[in-house]
């Protein structure tokens, strides 16, 4: 199911890698949400979609970008999933990411 999004100027549509129940049901989801970077890397490695990465590559069209993860402070720790996803997307797309710049 595609989430409903209200258009914002020419901001691009959301690109999903995996359905929310698949991500939240992954055994490494909870540890990643509370600060386990290794669990976040495992979750992202299992959930990232080659098709979604290709959609992003086409959208970006080779333009230089810097991927910046948005960290969420959870009640039990810092969610490491955004960082792991930014790092993996950066690796696959050949871009830079802002490692640890937002906290």
- Rg calculated over all Cα atoms: 14 Å
User: Pairing-aware structural class of the strands and helices?
Assistant: mainly alpha
Instruction: Quickly count the domains.
Output: 1
Tally of DSSP helical segments? 5
Order of helices and strands: HHHHEEEHE
Mean of all residue-level pLDDT scores: 86
Distance between the termini: 31 Å
| β-strand number | 4
Measured as a percent range, the helix fraction is 40-55%
Strand order across the largest sheet: 1-4
What does the main sheet amount to?
2 strands, parallel
**Proportion of strand residues:** 5-15%
Give start-end ranges of low-pLDDT stretches.
none
What's the quick description here?
This protein has 103 residues and is mostly helical. 44% of the residues lie in helices and 8% in strands.
Helices and strands in order:
Layout: H1 20-24, H2 29-33, H3 37-47, H4 50-60, E1 66-67, E2 73-74, E3 77-78, H5 81-93, E4 96-97
Parallel strand pairs: 1-4
Antiparallel strand pairs: 2-3
């Amino acid at each position: 199911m595609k989430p409903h999004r209200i258009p914002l100027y020419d901001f691009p549509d959301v690109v999903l890698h995996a359905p929310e129940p698949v991500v939240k049901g992954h055994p490494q989801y909870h540890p990643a949400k509370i600060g386990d970077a290794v669990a976040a890397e495992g979750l992202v490695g299992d959930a990232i979609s080659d098709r979604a990465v290709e959609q992003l590559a086409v959208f970006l069209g080779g333009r230089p970008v810097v991927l910046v993860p948005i960290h969420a402070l959870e009640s039990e720790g810092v969610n490491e999933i955004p960082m792991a996803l930014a790092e993996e997307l950066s690796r696959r797309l050949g871009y830079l990411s802002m490692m640890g710049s937002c906290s």
